[in-house]
Predict the structure of Methylthioribose kinase.
Amino acid sequence: MSKYHPLSEAEAIEIARSFAEVFPTGEELVSREIGDGNLNLVFHITQPATGRSLIVKQALPYVKIIGDSWPLSLDRARIEGEALIKQGELAPGLVPVVYRSDADMALTIMEDLSDHVIMRKGLIEGGVYPDFAEHLAEFLSRTLFFTSDLGMNQQDKKVQLGRFINPDLCKITEDFVLNFPYYDAESNNIEPYLRDAAEAVWRDEELLLEAAKLREKFLTHAQALLHGDLHTGSIFVTPASTKVIDPEFAYYGPMGFDIGAIVANLLLNYAGQEHWSPNEADRRDRRAYLLSTITELWTRFERKFRALWDAHGVDKRFDLPGYQDDYMKRLLQDTIGFAGAKALRRVYGLAQVADIATIPDREARERAQRLALAIARNLIVSNRSASSIEDVVRIAETAAGSRS
Ligand SMILES: Nc1ncnc2c1ncn2[C@@H]1O[C@H](COP(=O)(O)OP(=O)(O)O)[C@@H](O)[C@H]1O
Ligand SMILES: CSC[C@H]1O[C@H](OP(=O)(O)O)[C@H](O)[C@@H]1O
C-alpha cells in the first residue's frame, strides 16, 4: 500500500530534521507553506537560531488550481528530482542542490534559494540581471545538447527517454498551451472586454494552422530532455546568479519549446510595461533591456551550442557542410513559434501571469493584453520564415508601435 499522503507542516519539519548536513544542531525548526504555483506544496523550513534552511516540495495528486477533478500523477516528483540531478550534472551551479528525492512520498528536498528572487517578480519590480543571458544560454545549450542525438550515445538516449515519459504533465501543456486557447474552451478566462480578441484568434486560419503544426511538434519531436516549463516563475535570480527550478514537466521534446518559453515570458513582461514603467522614457529603456536580453540569450545560446557540437558531436552523418546551419535555423524557428504559443495562452487562458494579470488599471491591462496577443500572433504565423533573432525584436517593436 502506498505511504503517500499530503504532508502537514509538523511532518515536513520532522523530515527536514533528519538532514544533519543542513541542521547539525537540535534547535527548533519552523515551517511555512510558500507554494504559489499551480500544482504543488512547498514547505520552507528554517532554524531561526542558526539561520539554516531547506525546501521540502511535495506533489499533490491533482492540479492545485483546479482541484481533484483534474487528477495528476505523482510520478512527476520522481521526474522533477531526476531532471534536477541531470541538469545539475550538465550545468553545474545553475539548479538547486537536491538533498533527496523520494518518489513514494512525491518529495523533492532541496537547497533553499530564498536569497534569490523569482525572476517574474524581479522583472515586475524593475530588476536588471546582467548575467542572466549568459547563465541561461549555458544552461540551455548544455542540457539540450548533451541529452540529444547530437551529443549523447543514441541508444542510451532511447533508454533515457523512457525515464522521462511524463503523460499527465505533457497533457497539461497539450491542453492549456496548444489546444484550449484556440477555441472557446470552458477553462479559458476571458475578460469580457477582451472577448473580441479571443474570437479573432479562433477565426484566424493562418494562426490556427501554424499552432496545429507547433502542437504536432510538441507531441512528436523527441529531440532532447526539456525542462518543459521554463517561464520566469521557474527561475530564481540575483544580479550575479541564476538558478532554474521546477522541472516537473521534463520530457523528451522539441528544444525550441524551452528556449521559446523564456522568450515568451520576457515578452509578456515587455507587454506589461504598459503599466509597470512610470513614463514613456522608462518604458522605452525597459523594453530595450528586455529585447537585448532576448537577443543576447539566443546569440550566446547559438554560439555555445555550435561549439559543443563542433567539440562533442557524436554523429558523423551530421558533419555535412550546411547541416549545422540548417539545424540552427530550424531551432530558431521552433523557438519563435513556441514563444508565440507560450505567450498567447497566458493572455486569456486559465493560468495567467502576474506581469499582466495584476495590472490594476483596466485600460492599461487591456493595452498590455492586446499587445501580448499581437506579438504572440505574429511570432506564431511567421515562425517558419524567420531567419534571425532580430525578427523577434522587429515583431515586438512593431506591435508596440516603436518601429514602423
Ligand atoms: N528551492 C527553492 N528555494 C526557495 N523557494 C522555493 C524553492 N523552490 C520553490 N520555491 C518557492 O515555491 C514557489 C513554488 O515553487 P515551484 O517549484 O514553482 O512550484 P509549482 O511546481 O507548484 O509551480 C516558488 O515560486 C518559490 O517561491
Ligand atoms: C493548469 S496548470 C497551468 C500551468 O501551471 C504550470 O505552471 P507552474 O506550476 O509553474 O505555476 C504550467 O505552466 C501549466 O501550464
In short: Residues 34-40, 42, 55, 57, 96, 110-114, 118, 233-234, 245-246, 248 surround adenosine-5'-diphosphate (ligand 1) (CB under 6 Å). The chain has two domains: 9-111, 117-399. The first strand starts at residue 30 and ends at 33.
